[in-house]
Amino acid sequence: MNERLRQLRTYPMVELARRKAEVAARGVRVLDFGTGDPVEPTPEFIRAALSAAVPEVSQYPSVAGGAPLREAIAAWYERRFAVTLDPVREIMPSRGSKEAMFHLPLVLVDPSEERRGVVYPEPGYPVMEIGSLYAHADTHVVRLTAENAYQMDPAAVPEEVLARARIVWINYPHNPTGQDLPEALWRAWVDARDRHGFVLCSDECYTELWHGERPRSLLEFGREGCLIFHSLSKRSAMTAYRSGFVAGDADVLARYRAARSGMGLAQTEWVQAASAAAWSDEAHVAERRRIFGEKRALMTAGLAALGLEVYPTTSTFYLWVSAPAGTNGDDYALALLEHGIVVSPGSMFGAGNEQFFRLALVPSVAGCREALERWGGLATA
User: Which residues have C-beta within 8 Å of that of residue 307, sequence separation ≥ 6?
Assistant: First the structure.
């Protein structure tokens, strides 16, 4: 096995699935707040668009994806962020964001060069680290904590690290804490990119699930050397469809697109049709925000009544919760498992987060109520 990969922990969602299966095997009804895979149905009009596009003869999709999908993405992005993108040169459809984020360091990082660093936040999406290790990059972790409000600031990264970085990852709205980045820090990151010349990459998969101010996008502040990664998984209840896109600097994207033919293709034609329909509609997204808002209000109030501290959020469908005094996120998660409640221990998102656990607002509203009832039993046990 590649020695670099021995550094990796078991991928968090794999470990959660294992734990969930153990509890279910005992006959316990599982309420899964672990993996961020909501249970609400994919809207009917999206499923209809997919069904109507299934051809009689199935053939390979292209690397670049079809024009209708790229144009639908460009139209959505302009409506949402008031930024015009060239659908030919500045947009590349992808099979979700995970695959695209994993592959990018393999394209941009040359381990024989001095500039071979990848900078990423912790806690954060594990794929940022995983892709970097596969690419034999030098990695630098930026620790995010309650003390810095989980806001990644270039001033906290040594200048020599930024000077040697090939890629810097930022992730707002932030997984797992639900924070947004203020405008001043968006601008500070673009200024740092301009000074040092790294590729600034922004994971923006949760921009449409807000309950505070509408989140911003990196390309509102700069385009040279900037890429954004988006997905329909959470926005449109399409996790299994594996549909997203990368957009931004045309020159960087051209290098990525050229390499992509050796790594994969765009979505199938029928998934592209469903995706174009999804990007073209906002009503279903507003309804998802309403549903997640109802769950968030219910769980936040219920956890507070149980004496648990929930870190304030502005976006995503996650809650970042501190374990009770005298225990930690790992031990508390194991105790919850005994009651059939699955949560993600903070340690799964990197060192220094052991006191926390993450809830994904996945179960139905009724499931959330049932979980709080069981939780109350745990508190009095």
Answer: 324, 379
Q: Three-state SS across the chain?
A: CCHHHHHCCCCHHHHHHHHHHHHHHCCCCCEECCCCCCCCCCCHHHHHHHHHHCCCCCCCCCCCCCHHHHHHHHHHHHHHHCCCCCCCCCEEEECHHHHHHHHHHHHHCCCCCCCCEEEEEECCCCHHHHHHHHCCCEEEEEECCHHHCCCCCHHHCCHHHHHCEEEEEEECCCCCCCCCCCHHHHHHHHHHHHHHCCEEEEECCCCCCECCCCCCCHHHCCCCCEEEEEECCCCCCCHHHCCEEEEECHHHHHHHHHHHCCCCCCCCHHHHHHHHHHHCCCHHHHHHHHHHHHHHHHHHHHHHHCCCEECCCCECCEEEEECCCCCCHHHHHHHHHCCCEECEEHHHHCCCCCCEEEEECCCCHHHHHHHHHHHHHHHHC
Tens of pLDDT, residue by residue over 257-268, are 999 888 888 999
Cα(263)–Cα(103) distance, rounded to whole angstroms?
Answer: 8
With bands split at pLDDT 50, 70 and 90, how would you rate the model's confidence at 334?
Answer: confident
Q: What's the rounded Cα separation, in Å, for the pair 158 and 199?
A: 17
pLDDT band at 221 (very low <50, low <70, confident <90, very high): very high
Mind listing the pLDDT tens digit for each residue in 49-103? 999 999 999 989 998 999 999 999 999 999 999 999 999 999 999 999 999 999 9
Q: Kindly list the structural domains of the chain, giving each domain's residue range(s) and its CATH number in brackets, ordered by start.
A: 3-42+283-380 (3.90.1150.10), 44-279 (3.40.640.10)
Q: Nearest CA to 133 among 168, 166, 106?
A: 106
pTM over 0.85: yes
Please answer whether residues 141 and 167 qualify as being in contact, where contact means their C-beta atoms are separated by less than 8 angstroms.
Answer: no
Question: How far apart (Å, rounded) are the C-alpha atoms in residues 116 and 132?
Answer: 10
Per-residue CA distances from 102 to 4, 118, 353 (Å): 15, 12, 23
